[in-house]
């Protein structure tokens, strides 16, 4: 546990958010998991090499502009964070969408800092065991 008297870095904040999102995923609290994973992903600018978000954006079809394509992948995250008068007041949020958001955040964190955590490694193994990622 972090000492609350010391400042927190963006890296520490993103790591805590990802760890919290993983815990919420396993508790089937998908709304919290997506919100925390999305916040962590937003903290992690300029991550290299290819992380999932970058790959998704590179696969944009010609008939979608970048803003439309990004909005599609962020619709639930934005629905959870902002007023969305153009969307229904109810939404089905499932494990799959939550896992994708967590992979986005985790891959961006590892891409930026060139390291993960034991919690991220356990999440990656959980993804493999549940067929979200290819086996090693």
Count of DSSP E strands?
Answer: 0
Quickly give the structural class: mainly alpha
Report mean pLDDT, rounded to a whole number: 86
Spatial gap, N to C terminus: 32 Å
Q: Describe the biggest sheet?
A: none
Oligomeric category: single chain
Taking all Cα atoms into account, the compactness measure Rg is: 15 Å
- Uncertain spans: none
The total of helices stands at 6
What string gives the helices and strands in order? HHHHHH
What overall form do the CA principal axes indicate?
A: globular
Strand content: under 5%
Percentage of residues assigned to helices: 55-70%
Description:
- By secondary structure, this protein is mostly helical.
- Helices cover 62% and strands 0% of the residues.
- It contains 6 helices and no strands.
- Helix 1 (10-26) packs antiparallel against helix 2.
- It is globular, with a radius of gyration of 15 Å.
List descriptors.
136 residues, mainly alpha, 6 helices, 0% strand
Topology:
Blueprint: H1 10-26, H2 30-43, H3 52-58, H4 66-81, H5 95-113, H6 118-129
Helix pairs in contact: 1-2, 1-5, 2-4, 2-5
Task: Describe the structure concisely for a colleague.
The protein has 136 residues and is mostly helical.
